[in-house]
Amino acid sequence: MVKVIASSLRKGHVVEQDGNLHVVLTAENVHPGKGNSVTNVTMRRISDGVKVLGRWRTVEMVEKADVDDRVYDYLYSDGEGNHFMEPETYEQLVVPDDVIGDQKAYLSDGMKVHLMTHEGIALSMELPQRMTFEIVETEPVVKGQTASSSYKPAVLNNGLRVMVPPHIDAGTRIVILTEDNSYVERAKD
Question: Among 48, 132, 176, 181, whose CB has the most other CB atoms within 10 angstroms?
């Protein structure tokens, strides 16, 4: 176990609290005008999956668990779970849907992801920050709306719904941030 400052906690980190391991789901540093800055953390207890709230002063030290962070190749999903393979050892790992959550829509065959494991159990998955998808359905382009700052809904080829600028049409490949499903730019490929 390593002690880290509370303000450095991020999504996917694993911390020990009250003798249990927890995966950080969200971490937010709050700096009020008066008083001490605090770090509010939403965590999932690994042993039973219960969500727990944590709150530390930003300068407090927190026990960060020693986890194995490796790149895995995504293979496929079935009733058992989501199957990943470590490219060096060809060791396969089955990850349940509750660990992956809403990131499952991003998974595609052969994709490389970071999996954090502790004693052979998957704790969290980290996707690439930016990914490219094709728009399969959106409202038609309206002349004269290209300069406005309004966005319109679009459906991507992986089934996700995102908001895109009005000048983007169906069939266009775009780059989105996986963190919040937001449009970044047109793909350059």
Answer: 176
Domains in the chain: boundaries: 2-64, 68-126, 130-186
In sequence order, the β-bridge partners of residue 188 are none
pLDDT in tens, 60-81: 888 888 788 889 999 999 988 8
Fold of 68-126: OB fold (Dihydrolipoamide Acetyltransferase, E2P) (2.40.50)
Dmax over CA atoms of the chain, in Å, equals 61
Residues 96-153: tens digit of each pLDDT: 888 888 888 888 888 899 888 877 788 888 888 899 999 999 888 766 655 556 888 9
Look up the pTM and report it. Answer: 0.69
Q: Which fold has domain 130-186?
A: OB fold (Dihydrolipoamide Acetyltransferase, E2P) (2.40.50)
